[in-house]
Amino acid sequence: MIERRSFDSLGGANHGWLDAKHHFSFADYRDAQRVNWGALRVWNDDTIAPQTGFPPHGHADMEIITYVREGAITHEDSLGNRGRTEAGDVQVMSAGSGVRHSEYNLESTTTRIFQIWILPDRQGDKPSWGAKPFPKDDRSGKFVTLASGMDGDGDALPIRANARVLGATIKAGESLDYGFDHADRYGYLVLAKGSASVNGVALSSRDGAAIHGETTIRITATEDTEIVLVDAPALN
Fold first, then answer.
1. Which residues pair with 46 in a beta bridge?
2. What sections of 116-161 are H helices per DSSP?
């Protein structure tokens, strides 16, 4: 089963400095049919104005992955971490027993991010943060694992969930396959840009595809396309 979730169908709110679109129920957006997808709880498509951002706030027991699409995001937290993550790169915060952090666009241009929350396999661990560059040229025509808690993904940023976050770029007219270990895995794929079909289901830029019961998907690009994919387990 592959269900297209068009960008136009997403919930969200425009706060002026922040234009937020929500693939799943979040903040004031409520949709009983879009609460989570397996252990994937949140996928926000955020556009952040220059010199603005999220002031300090708290999280606990959540794996929070930030994929920067354009611009850069600057992170600071109660653990003493501070870092700037640029377009194409990724940061991960394992909130664990609790952490406070802020995220600001300190740039002179707009920043666009995907922020993805995945429910952890365990709770109460010590919180942590990390970031890593992932050059887009290294993802041309293939998936690169950006963040993962699955065996064999040692080059990725670690998360505390039996899940992985992957990125790829596909040139117009080319195809790329991804195989799930089991048909009971939950996949969620979003086009950061471009257009493509997933097992024949057509997607446009910033559309989502909710995938379940599939062991293999084939993504065929109709124009140069940038993809982010989450492969998540069922809820415990």
1. 20, 113
2. none
Amino acid type, 127: P
**SS3 of 57, please?**
strand
Based on its alpha-carbon atoms, the radius of gyration of the chain, rounded to whole angstroms, reads: 17
For residue 227, give the H/E element and its range. strand 225-232
The pLDDT of residue 92 is 98
* Stretch among 44-53, 132-141, 155-164 having the lowest mean pLDDT: 132-141
Q: What is the pLDDT of residues 52-84, one digit of tens each?
A: 999 999 999 999 999 999 999 999 999 999 999
DSSP SS3 for 137: helix
DSSP codes of every residue in 193-222: ES-EEETTEEE-TT-EEEEES-SEEEEEES
Q: Rounded mean pLDDT of 156-175?
A: 98
Q: What is the pTM (predicted TM-score) of this model?
A: 0.97
* CA–CA dist 156, 152 (Å, integer): 9
CA distance 231 to 162: 9
The structure tokens 């700037």 sit at: 84
Which of the 8 DSSP states describes residue 93?
A: E
